[in-house]
């Protein structure tokens, strides 16, 4: 274990290998003008550059994607499936390099980055398989005299806007179903982490995706970008992953052209542990649900609601596990927690801890005092957090575990649902009846039952309430990029 407040240094060989990947994708040299600098959150050094495109350039990219989309929509599902499968194979072949790049630009540990590559590539494999399914139905009209045919047609040009926390997976989760459905895309990655998306798009072209079909638009002016592209009548779909505030802005813009909209927004996940839970399983699940990606995940456990009889043992076990995590560069050996994505995030987390403590929460481990130039915030456990503390009313997006205690199942459900968000929830109990009862009553799109990492490419991921609209992954994720049309075929007679 490292001594408190020590930030582990990167393994130099890994970091050097990551820098080589930046050169491989051609992002190591600053463009002549209008560049966005990309930083390593470990020490704020500049690690690469991408063009800072203006709205005219974004609209040019849109024109290219729109033109390429016509021919792509006319390809066969089998053809699209084969190309997606080759893209999957290339993502797997280049998994080490992609993981290095994710760690370099986003900060997460290399093991988290490798897990993201597996997860992100899985969406491409899934939609390679799904492309040839889900192509329509034939039904008998209930009154007879007709057959009803449905056809799942590509919706057209899709605008995809992604966040920085999973730079590969949030892109593939949108691009793969769009391509499988027969759509072209303009993708805008987060300004903080554009390199991984560029790399993935280059591999897609290597796999046989037509050059112009995926247009990656990097810009520091996201507002002007969305105003311009969402007003363009050639766009038929917007898919966004990010904060609820920005999602609401985009939904308002989408309303003008009545765009089909998918919104994967913020969360405030309750993690409910009952007295009858398996303690070790609950602690293991809690560490995963809280600490994956340094807590910077939309489905991260935000509020630990723990029943009185098990609370002391759970808090003790969780505190021990989190206090033992080494904090440092994602490239360091034996690191458990990398830097936060930027200094703004660290200031926000410090504010949440200060607010909770000022309202009476008990600070059990304090991650607030990490030295160094990078944006570090260590694992933190707060117990007996009052209901009005900001750490439980807002999305934490960092390595702070906020524990509250409850007495009855009804109290747990009421408190779990006391939020405008509804993305993920977790329930830990060995009682199957209770597990389903609680899962059915949690107002969330996703429930982990004795499971700290519920996401799966084969399952529909998405939120209720202000956590979003639509689903990603699974067959439902493909329909987000399809228009379902129906033909009514009249038949003589009544059959
Ligand atoms: P963010 O909303 O600040 O940014 C997300 C993306 O939107 C970025 O590409 C950003 O440049 C862009 N953006 C910002 N303002 C915009 C505007 N006016 N018009 C168009 N684009 C704009 O979110 P973030 O900080 O990058 O990501 C963290 C948030 O994302 C958290 O709230 C998290 O819960 C959420 N998230 C949700 C899911 C999910 O599946 N539900 C997954 C990952 C992250």
Helix-strand category: alpha/beta
Reported for the largest beta sheet, the result is: 7 strands, mixed
Global morphology: globular
Helix percentage: 40-55%
Beta-strand content bin = 15-25%
Q: What is the CA-atom radius of gyration, in angstroms? A: 23 Å
Weakly predicted, low-confidence segments:
none
Bound chemical compounds: nicotinamide-adenine-dinucleotide
Mean pLDDT: 96
Distance between the termini: 75 Å
- Tell me the strand order in the biggest sheet: 12-13-14-11-10-15-16
Report the total helices: 16
Count the beta strands.
18
What does the model show?
There is one protein chain. By secondary structure, the protein is of the alpha/beta class. It has helices spanning 12-24, 55-73, 77-93, 95-106, 110-130, 169-181, 195-206, 222-230, 244-256, 279-291, 308-323, 343-358, 390-393, 409-416, 432-441, 474-479, and strands spanning 35-39, 46-51, 136-140, 146-154, 157-161, 185-188, 214-216, 235-241, 260-264, 269-273, 301-307, 362-365, 380-383, 400-406, 424-428, 446-449, 468-469, 482-490. Strands 12-13-14-11-10-15-16 form a seven-stranded mixed sheet, sandwiched between helices. A six-stranded mixed sheet has the order 7-6-5-8-9-17, with helices on both faces. β1 and β2 form a beta hairpin. α4 (95-106) packs antiparallel against α7 (195-206). It is globular and about 75 Å long. The N and C termini lie far apart (75 Å). The model has no long low-confidence stretch (mean pLDDT 96).
């Amino acid at each position: 274990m490292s001594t408190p407040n020590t930030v582990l240094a990167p393994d130099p060989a890994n970091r050097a290998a990551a820098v080589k990947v930046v050169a491989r994708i051609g992002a190591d040299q600053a463009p002549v003008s209008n560049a966005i600098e990309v930083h390593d959150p470990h020490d704020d050094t500049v690690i690469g550059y991408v063009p800072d495109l203006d709205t005219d350039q974004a609209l040019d990219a849109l024109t290219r994607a729109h033109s390429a989309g016509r021919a792509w929509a006319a390809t066969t599902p089998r053809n699209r499936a084969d190309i997606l499968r080759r893209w999957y194979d290339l993502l797997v072949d280049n998994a080490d390099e992609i993981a290095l790049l994710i760690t370099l630009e986003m900060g997460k540990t290399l093991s988290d980055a490798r897990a993201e590559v597996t997860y992100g590539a899985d969406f491409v494999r899934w939609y390679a398989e799904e492309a040839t399914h889900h192509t329509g139905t034939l039904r008998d009209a209930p009154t007879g005299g007709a057959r009803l045919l449905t056809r799942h047609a590509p919706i057209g040009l899709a605008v995809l806007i992604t966040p920085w926390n999973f730079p590969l997976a949030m892109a593939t989760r949108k691009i793969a179903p769009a391509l499988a459905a027969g759509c072209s895309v303009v993708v805008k990655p987060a300004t903080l982490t554009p390199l991984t998306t560029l790399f993935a798009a280059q591999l897609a072209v290597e796999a046989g995706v037509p050059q112009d079909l995926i247009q990656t638009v990097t810009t520091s002016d996201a507002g002007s970008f969305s105003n311009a592209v969402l007003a363009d009548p050639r766009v038929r779909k917007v898919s966004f992953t990010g904060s609820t505030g920005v999602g609401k802005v985009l939904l308002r813009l989408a309303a003008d052209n009545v765009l089909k909209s998918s919104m994967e927004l913020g969360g405030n996940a309750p993690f409910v542990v009952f007295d009858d839970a398996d303690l070790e399983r609950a602690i293991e699940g809690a560490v995963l649900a809280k600490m994956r990606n340094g807590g910077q995940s939309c489905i991260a456990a935000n509020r630990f609601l723990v029943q009185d009889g098990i609370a002391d043992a759970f808090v003790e076990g969780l505190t021990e596990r989190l206090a033992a995590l080494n904090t440092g560069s994602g490239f360091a050996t034996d690191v458990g927690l990398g830097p936060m994505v930027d200094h703004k995030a660290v200031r926000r987390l410090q504010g949440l801890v200060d607010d909770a403590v000022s309202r009476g929460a008990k600070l059990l481990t304090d991650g607030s005092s990490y030295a160094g130039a990078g944006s570090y915030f260590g694992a933190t456990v707060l117990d007996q957090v009052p209901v009005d503390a900001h750490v439980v009313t807002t999305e934490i997006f960092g390595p702070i575990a906020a524990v509250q205690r409850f007495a009855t199942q009804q109290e747990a459900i009421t408190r779990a649902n006391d939020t405008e968000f509804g993305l993920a929830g977790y329930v830990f109990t060995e009682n199957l009846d209770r597990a389903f009862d609680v899962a059915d009553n949690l107002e969330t799109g996703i429930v982990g039952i004795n499971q700290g990492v519920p996401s799966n490419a084969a399952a529909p991921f998405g939120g209720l309430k202000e956590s979003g609209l639509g689903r990603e992954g699974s067959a439902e994720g493909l329909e987000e990029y399809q228009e379902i049309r129906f033909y009514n075929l009249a038949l003589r007679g009544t059959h």
